[in-house]
Amino acid sequence: MTFELETAAHPENLKRVVIEPVTRVEGHGKVTLLLDEDNRIHQARFHIVEFRGFEKFIQGRPYTEVPVLVQRLCGICPVSHHLAASKAMDMIIGATLTPSADKLRRLMHFGQILQSHALHFFYLASPDLLFGFDSGLATRNIVGVAAAYPEIARQGVALRKYGQEVIRLTAGKRIHGTGAIPGGVNKNLSVAERDFLLKDIDQIIAWSQGAVDLIRKVYCERPEFHNGFGYYRSSFMSLAREDGALDFYHGGLRARDEHGQDIFDHLDYSHYWDYVHEEVKPWSYMKFPFIRSRGREEGWYRVGPLARVNNCDFIPTPLAEAERRIFKAFDGGSATQATLAYHWTRMIEMLHCAEGIQELLHDDDLLGDDLLSQGERSLRGVGVIEAPRGTLIHHYRINEDEQIVRANLIVSTTHNNQAMNEAVRQVALQYLDGKELTEGLLNHIDVAIRAFDPCLSCATHALGKMPLEVELIDAEGKQIDRLARNSPGTCGA
Amino acid sequence: MTAPLLVFAYGNPSRGDDALGPLLLERLEALHLPQVELLTDFQLQVEHAIDLQGRERVLFIDASVSCPPPFAFSRLAPAKDRSFTSHAMSPNAVLQAYQELYGEAPPAWLLAVRGETFELGEPLSPAAAANLEAAFGSLQNFVSGWK
Predict the structure, then answer these.
(1) In angstroms, rounded to a whole number, what is the distance separating the alpha carbons of residues A111 and A143?
(2) Which domains does chain A have, with CATH numbers?
(3) B147 and chain A in contact, CB less than 8 A
(4) Which residues of B touch A23 (CB under 8 A)?
(5) Phi, psi of A339 (to 5 degrees)
């Protein structure tokens, strides 16, 4: 089936606008718009143009290597893949984690989400939020933020760095860490390492609270605009702890519809395919998952910070919980379906990470030596975590020789595929329909996509491979305008 | 104490010739050079500006599809280029971020090594392997003769 504006009835008579690549996101994606002579929009699509092929790459490798290998899937969230794969391998060796191993992994995960959220908010999103969506391109970047708001920029760098220090000390290395292994972890935290992290945690919490204050202030200054930008209603899916608390590391699957009613709750994720199905569409390499019981048309959903904060019954740390209540109560709950509320909820989660890190650092289990366990073996393993961008599913099958024979990954951005397309269509109708297109207007599309912090996943970044090309093609297929840029630093029309 | 020379190689070791930077760093690591710190990551990010603090010189190493083969050394200047809008920054952009946040950036160079293929799971291409060998000699000269 297709959605409104997904496929134009007569594309042959329409002009085509391409935004490629979408900026301030990870990986390669593009947006295509089909417009008639009056610039009315007939089709809007967000395409993922990269074929990952990772599931093939991993076949034949020993299962013990997987938690390390999967980190090369992505340069932005390697720890998320490391932990999801480790959880899947725990299932394969029948392990139930010891308290020390569980808490060390949770600490690593908090560090990962903290640094990822800090990067997105301060470096990728804040230029739009602080300067406006159609402000000058020359200032709408982190250097513009550093010049106008140096303290905010410095805090952003320091928050990101702190998160990475947590990763380094729990995973063993800055990158390609080996901290999590099937059945547990291979190192604990020394007293010196714990004290190193404790030294700055009060400051990190204060800065995280400051970030929530900032986004709340920005959002609430123009509530109608921020609520209405790319607005639509949808279901949400996330993990939730047994008692309904927000939990990034483990829990049951919970999905709630656009009215907040349960679709399912506390589901055992090891049979996720009974509840979530992936649809293939010919114009994108990325699949379109949907909730089986709701069908293709009604079953799509959103994941990530907005989904998690909406879906959880409470956040188990006091400052973040207070902010969750403010968010949910804001203007009668009007922000809970808003595309731009992703930014607000992302910062609430960052605050929760900072508080969670502090709580864990006072727990002596982090210093413990009981780090590994195992039990009855299985040939199948499923690991699910809440990665920074949403629910991340790793599913593996091994053979008797302990080699991977099948792998299936559903990454957060894939869950959000239909939701991002919907946001693009809403923004296209709200701001572009019938208008002369400008870079500022086209950036509105980017802003909508960027709210999801999509990770289109590549980590290949060789010099000279980051072109941006916007083409305007008339109804006869003739190019009437083109803007192109090359990296680093050149731009020509 | 902070080592006065930082060599920062970036690239994904599982992406064919994107591994050129990390592989050169591995070769350098085996030399156990004093007063040199070796760091690697998948891609450059703004927090890497912090790694530049207290350095006398910085050398970035990356695979390149646009430099002439086998490799090219160039002096870097801070620049507000378009990579600020990306998850992966250019070294010029990292220097610019440093300058905005902490003051004058240390002198920095880029060793760009020509790569040809960047597919996931691919090994280093024969051309890139030859380029690596050619670049390593110059790299050794740089790190041993910088004082």
Answers:
(1) 25
(2) 11-49+420-492 (no CATH), 54-415 (1.10.645.10)
(3) no
(4) 82, 85-86
(5) -55, -45
Written as one letter, the residue type at A399 is N
Residues of chain B contacting residue A56, judged by C-beta atoms under 8 Å apart: 121
- Beta-strand ranges (E) seen in chain B are 5-10, 36-41, 57-64, 71-76, 108-114
- Tokens encoding A255: 């999905």
The number of C-beta contacts closer than 8 angstroms across A and B is: 143
- B12 with A142: Cβ contact below 8 A: no
Shortest CA distance to A442 belongs to which of A473, A413, A471? A471
State which amino acid sits at residue A218: V
Query: Which CATH number, 3.40.50.1450, 3.40.50.300, 1.10.150.120, 3.40.50.800, labels domain B5-144?
Result: 3.40.50.1450
Contact B14 A161 (CB under 8 A): no
> Is A50's pLDDT higher than 70?
no
- By the 10 Å C-beta count (0-12 exposed, 13-18 middle, 19+ buried), A31 is classed as buried
- Do B120 and A488 count as a contact with CB atoms less than 8 A apart? no
Q: In this structure, which amino acid lies at residue A15?
A: K
Domain boundaries, chain B: 5-144
* Interchain CB distance below 8 Å, B82 and A143: no
Number of H helices, E strands in chain A: 16, 17
pTM, to two decimals: 0.86
Between β-strands B108-114 and A301-302, what pairing exists: parallel, antiparallel or unpaired? unpaired
- Residue pair A44/A5 in contact by the 8 Å Cβ criterion: yes
User: What are the DSSP calls for A356-413, one per residue?
Assistant: HHHHHHT-GGGG-S--B---S--SEEEEEEEETTEEEEEEEEE-TTSBEEEEEEE-HH
Q: Among A2-11, A35-44, A326-335, B26-35, whose mean pLDDT is lowest?
A: A2-11
Task: Encode pLDDT of A449-462 as tens digits.
Answer: 889 887 754 222 23
The pLDDT confidence band at residue A168, using thresholds 50, 70 and 90, is very high
* A57 contacts in chain B (CB < 8 Å): 14, 120-121
Residue type, A229: F
What the block records as the tokens of A192 is 């010196």
**Chain B nearest CA to A344, separation (Å):** 20
pLDDT tops 90 at residue A73: no
* Size of chain B, expressed as the number of residues it contains: 147
Option in A72, A147, A487 nearest B81 (CB): A487
